[in-house]
């Protein structure tokens, strides 16, 4: 019998404390990795994209999800992210320009969304972070971030 490997890979971005505070503000309660502390927080707003999901509750979910937090609001779910069985190296690219959010996997667009304030103000600058389940074996290299110029 083949053991099902359960993983979830997420990219958080534009993460900032409510009222503009840094997400590492010492006045915020300690976070222990519990997902809802990031997605339904009383202290932090962010966007996140799950671009690989093979979870116990929905094994084999290939469709990428874009969500806005706090609140875990689903904004878009259309295109597959990383293939579930892939062992290849993949390239991720995220472009966040004012209200526009575009993400590519290997030059294939998986997210293309314009935030129109439906779930609160458009999130701008903030921290970027990768989140994955503790038993995953995914690695990242050659990470680069640039400010967009007009």
From TrEMBL:
Annotated Pfam families: DUF1961
GO terms, biological process: carbohydrate metabolic process
Signal peptide, first to last residue: none
Record SUPFAM superfamilies: Concanavalin A-like lectins/glucanases
GO terms of molecular function: hydrolase activity, hydrolyzing O-glycosyl compounds
Domain of life: Bacteria
Full protein name: 3-keto-disaccharide hydrolase domain-containing protein
């Amino acid at each position: 019998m083949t053991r099902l490997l359960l993983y979830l890979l997420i990219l958080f971005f534009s993460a900032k404390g409510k009222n503009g505070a840094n997400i590492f503000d010492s006045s915020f309660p300690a976070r222990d990795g519990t997902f809802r502390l990031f997605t339904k927080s009383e202290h932090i707003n962010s966007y996140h994209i799950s671009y690989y999901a093979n979870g116990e509750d929905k094994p084999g979910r290939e469709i990428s999800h874009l969500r806005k937090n706090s609140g875990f609001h689903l904004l878009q779910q259309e295109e597959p992210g990383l293939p579930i069985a892939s062992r290849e190296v993949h390239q991720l690219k995220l472009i966040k320009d004012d209200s526009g959010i575009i993400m590519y996997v290997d030059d294939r667009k998986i997210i293309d969304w314009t935030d129109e304030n439906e779930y609160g103000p458009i999130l701008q600058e903030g921290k970027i972070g990768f989140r994955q389940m503790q038993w995953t074996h995914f690695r990242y290299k050659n990470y680069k971030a640039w400010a967009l110029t007009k």
